[in-house]
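dude i think i finally got it to work??
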Amino acid sequence: MPVAQDVIRHAAERPSKLAVCGPGGELTYAELAGKISGAARHLLRRGIGPGAIVALALADPVELLAAVLAADLAGATPLIGDHTWDRRRWSQVTAPVGPVAFVGRPLPYAAGPPVRREPQPDDLAWACFSSGSTGRPRAIVRRRASWTASFPHLGDLAGIGPDDVVLVPGPLVSSLYAFAAVHALAVGATAVVPGRWPARRSLAAHLAGATVVHLVPHRLPDVAGHPGSSLRAAVVGGAALAPGTREEAGRAGLHVLAYYGATELSFVAVDVDGDGLRPFPGVEIEVRPEAGSAFGEVWVRSPWLAQGYLGDAAGPLRRDRDGWVTVGDVAEPYRPGEVLRVRGRGDGAIQTGGATVVPEDVEEVLRKVPGVGDVVVVGSPHPSLGAVVTAIVEGAPPRSLLEATARSGLDAAQRPRRWYGVPSLPRTATGKPARALVAARLADGDPGIRRLI
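look at this
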């Protein structure tokens, strides 16, 4: 069932209940249902229906959610992008996808009869980009069942129901936050969508009314034990929790549900009580050993997997003939029934101070430095920024030259703050530097990786 139909059902049962609240206003379920239906009729009259891809670039998160659900109700595939991209940037990122219908303004309302169609589990019902505006995004698409059928499991694990107020304090271009907002509407809760991390005063006001929050790990200390907070649960994804963070939240009366996944894989494993990551319902996990390494590559088989990349774009997602997939993440050896210990992210995207940095973009610039044989860029944990960009250089160029090149060729968020050197980088079977393995060895304090000073 499309989430829009869930919203319409909630509107019939509790029309005056607040559905969504954003910086530009709020809508009851009755108002949201009417807005979605009218916008879906508008799309269909423009010939935008089943099989069409609708690129959405709206700054207002409430209008964006309404447009997403309207596209879904019309049978089209909504593709959320960054509203700050200009049309040239949009043309670049959608070129592999093919023709798209672009929506850069709130959709108008069109009167008419209810929109009726028979949704199918295999409908392409959701698409998003795999990285933010500092990278080269790939559009990932998933079928309806792979998305919405996981909703009840998350609801049960986190205890999210129709009486909750769910704070989603991040941009909806992120699949983590978009999923959280749509899940809240599917279960009939109130979704609070400020569109970005709120300023201190706004955060305090949101926490006074919210019962559940979705966020990334480095933001958990900002909400745990906040004076006047009504939070009872936090759903945390995107990276591993720092030691002691869960315990600190627990002392403040906040239950933490942490999960591991990827945009291409959706949910893979979940930690509900602090005892470690276990497979998310319906998920099978294998860690396949890598020759000469203490770690292995994480492979997953589940109902929640993405269909793939739109336009057959290249990306880290790989499949085998038995239905297992991987994005190259690295973990310690694993057997069913044990705790999964993930050690590195295969896609390598680094979340630093609210920006998304794609390692390949940084590596491309640094490879031009004389004396650099090759380079791997990873994220290193940071208490306030979430992560900092870290470069591991093959060779022995002076750090001053590396930093000068970074200043001249990279944005501020992309510039490495930590520099290391190695005689040679480990490589995959295809000859590429093994980024996730390098990250795991760095985290383990491998003496072969030396700090550049």
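The mean pLDDT is 89.
im so relieved honestly
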